[in-house]
Amino acid sequence: MAASNEIVIKPKNKISINFKELWHYRELFYFFTWRDIKVRYKQTAIGASWAIIQPFSTMVVFTLFFNKVAGIKSGAVPYAIFSYTGLLFWNYFSSALTQVSNSFVTNQQVITKIYFPRIIIPISATLLGVVDFFFAAIVFAGLAFYYHISPGTEGLLMILPMLLLSVIAALGVGTLFAALNVKYRDIRSIVPFVVQIGLFVTPVIYPVSLIPHKYQWILSLNPMSSVINTMRSGLLHQGSINWAQLGISCLSAFILLWIGIAYFKRTERQFADVI
Amino acid sequence: MKPVIEVKNLSKKYQISHSQKTNYHTLRDDLAAAVKKPASLITGRTQSKETFWALKDVSFEVNQGDVVGIIGKNGSGKSTLLKILSRIVDPTEGKAILRGKTASLLEVGTGFHQELTGRENIYFNGSILGMKKSEINHKLNDIIEFSEVEQFLDTPVKFYSSGMYVRLAFAVAAHLEPDILIVDEVLAVGDAAFQKKSLGKMKDVASHGRTVLFVSHNMGSIKQLCKRVILLSKGSIVEAGTPERVIAKYASGIQPDFERSLLSTLKGKVENIKINDSKDLHCHLDSGNDIKVNLSYAPNSEQKRVVFGLDLRSAQDGTLLALTHSGLEDRYFEVESQTDFIFTIKLPRIAPGEYVLGLSMWADDTFALDSEPIAKIEINPLAPFASGEVFSNYSSLLLVESSWEKLS
Fold first, then answer.
1. S-S: B299 plus which of A36, B188, B268, B402, CB 3.0-4.6 Å?
2. Are A8 and B96 within 8 A, CB to CB?
3. Are B67 and B208 in a shared domain?
4. A9/B96 CB distance under 8 A
């Protein structure tokens, strides 16, 4: 900040994001994420390998129970890689959602003592899971190699956009929860429940084709549903990408983001009063 | 030239809800309340609320290079003012203009994480205080040197003693180079040598043309550092001017309520205060008698560690004694439920007059009570000219034996 900078402090009415200020504080995004990553990998004895073990073992359990026992079919590809594709993105979403939802409460010490744009906290919280995502993606590559599946180019190109869509969805829902969490501390116990329900209303375990065709669009209101479908189409050659449904999902993700940020901005200035 | 800090009619209103002790609600409670009174969901009024002005119509200006002290009793609005100027809370009315790069230090070690090493914490803390990464790289050696913890730099701070922790945290803060520095009671940490060092650093900062706004209970450091002092009471400025004048006004205004023997804090309750086994908190003593303080402390649920401090002040001369039951270096009482304590001050022979006994308390490393007056101690006048003691108009604080002989 230049020495000539003038800060005017007055009651705030306007709800807006000051992008110039965010740019000024850009290094803080990095430092928050960097701190969380450091802490996280220090706290678990097995460190980064947890990011691989967790989705892999979930995939094994899912394959045993849902595929072998319950008989859920995954079309032409083996169920293991089918469910892993879903888990790769779903795990990112659920862990980011949980991180973001708790982010204000876990950082309350900092919020009550120092000023910086508060929106940095939830955004940084979404980035922590991205590191895990890339570790988990290594396993996907291994599975694809093992099952002799060569992922489609379209699918490979869609990985980053789909990750971004997951980030937006997690940020939208998470920020809403995070802001509510400041006011209502019992939100904290609602989040795991939402994540659990989410696993079942998102086609992680089952293929979307199990759902009658005319109702499938309802599923695409859930952004994660399209993320997973798109990846299964693109990477595992399960049909072609349904761009219309993906469009609905993007719209829905941006609406969620808008709701989350708007509610957050509305309650932001009360945080330090309440926490 | 325009003033560096301009505060105009700044006010802050808080709502206190009577039905709850905590600030946050549970959704369950609000929903339950809404079911009972459906209209409340729309109006948002689920409970009776009282408004309270923590700050009311505060206006002042600070010019470049001034060091201004802010004093006042607990609850006078000092912290609220600093929080508004630090942009942590928004004012309800009025405005403030800060011209220049501002850093505020309401606590040392904000954002320190137990699992991170000293070096990692320097980076995170520095960046949250507004330093760029390149700036931290550049100042890293100075920070490390100032902190005196270089050997443990790659050790997680959870293994640090509290003294090391504070030194490292202050070292980071001391290397900020803002135009305006807003500081809350952060100098009241660490051992005496470190306090002296930090006070020196503050003087250094001030002498480089920076503007400092400084809140403290320590009239000594206020006198040493500040050119101008503002006295707040009940959210308004009651006096502003030279340190001598304002501090005198502050001292004369301390009219504590000695009737209550119960102090509630955010961390717990202090009750059954007795002085020399008497519930009378306005007591008369002969010079040279010990003071014995009994009290019972009931912590709130999660809290465990507590450190007590006692101080004795005279209205005219300021602090005579300041004691804690231990240093801050990892020594404390562990309390789980209501616990009785007894503290004994072996007083030397002090001058007759009125003194105020203050109680301080740190609970889990936060300041829960800050020199809260708990009793008035009156040292009885002496029989005149007994055994050669000096008490000429009581201008001496101590009574000592002396002899006056003419050698022939």
1. B268
2. yes
3. yes
4. yes
